Each structure stands twice: as structure tokens, then as C-alpha cells.
Amino acid sequence: MPSLRWAAVVALAANLINATPTIAAEAVGRAVVIKTAVTGATGPLVVSAPVHRDERIRTSNTGLGQFVFRDGTKLAVGWGSSVVLDKYVFNDDNSVKKLTIRAAKGTFRWISGSSPSSAYQIVTPAGTIGVRGTAFDVHIAPNGKTAVVLLKGSARFCSGGGCRELKRRCDCVVATPSGSMTDVVKVNRSVLTTLGTSRALPFLTGNQQLSGGFDAIGGNCGLTAAIQQEHTARPQRRNSPAPPGPGTPDPP
Prior knowledge:
Radius of gyration: 25 Å
CATH topology: Jelly Rolls
Strand content: 35-45%
Shape: globular
Distance between the termini: 118 Å
Largest sheet: 15 strands, mixed
CATH architecture: Sandwich
CATH class: Mainly Beta
Number of helices: 4
Structural class: alpha+beta
């Protein structure tokens, strides 16, 4: 009998646990543009879908997602990307106390909202970006190599190799997970070579188009024109004439 009573108690407890509603993670923003394929924690995302704290957002190789957070911060997630909305602590005055984004791979555009700059932090495999009223693009290669291009305001990128201050529009720095980091230079075509793919920084090269206020920040830093000029200057391949056969007379 005691064993039967104990079994009944266990069964009742299990039923109570299963009946307890699951508390959903806090909604911290919403999707405003979705193209091709963008997925969240529960599956494909659509326009106006909420995004939540601790949610991982992934895009396909042609995907694009644009998101606006509760304090007006904007985040564009380009193709082949993965990012986690890691920490989000909201104040009562429509600002955030802490907003941390963990970017694992791919391309992102960040545009700060109305919260204090000290509230924002973007973590990459190669280092951490401190935000100061800023707009910038980030690209993270599969090996973790990370490029940051400043579009507005200023930013500080810190890794095991120290820190770099980005102060002028189009300033760029590239760092690796091992701690090596370049000097700050104006972004140029060679940065794509360093990152190992022409698909890097697609918002600046024009390979992916943003909209809704995400595209009017800082221009393209001349990267589109540089790539177009390179393609135009590339010599056309011509067919070489066949060598003369035996007995062919010399040309006059």
C-alpha cells in the first residue's frame, strides 16, 4: 500500500509540473524586412514577427532580415549569418540598460537606438565592439576573422591584441580569434581579399540591398565603385591565333 500511495504522489506531481505554463522569453523587437529565408527559435520568421531575448537568428545563403528593437536600435542580418540576442535588460523609460548581441558568423549592420551608448555591446569571435552612438557593418568569416567598418559616430574594437579606435567614417579594422589585429585604415577592396570572399560586406558592395532607413547610413565608402572599376579594367580574354603549320608561307 505505501508503494501505491508513493506512486500516486509521483504521478500527481508530474501532472502538476506538466500543467504549469511555460513562460515565454521576453519579446525585445520585431522583424521589419524578411527576404528568402530567416529563421528564429521556433522556425521561419515573417514581417512583424517578434524576436525574443536569447533567440538565435539564422539566415540562408541568400537570406536577409532587418529588425528594430524596442529602443529603436536597428540590426540587419545579411546572408549566411548567425546571431544571438544574448542579453536585454529594459528600463522603464523606453531605453535599455544592457543589450548584448553575440554574432557568430556572417554580415551585420548595427544602428544604435535611443539608449545610452554604454548599454550596447557586440561580441564577435575575434573581439568585442563597444558602441558610441554608432552605425557600423561587421563581417565574420567562417574561421572567425572579423572586420568592422564604421559608418557613423565612433566605436572601439578590443581583442587579445589590444584595442583600436574607429573615429572616421569608413574606418576599418580586421582581427582574428588568435589576437592579431590590423591598424585602422579606410575600407578598400583588399579587405575582401583578407576576409577570403567577395561576398563579405554585401551592404557596402551592393550585393545586398537594405531598406527602411537601414540603407541611408554613411554610404558605401566607395567600395561599390572600386569593385565596378576593377571589373571594368579587367582585360578581356582573347583567342590566340593558331601557330602556322608546316609549309605555311611567311607573311609579307
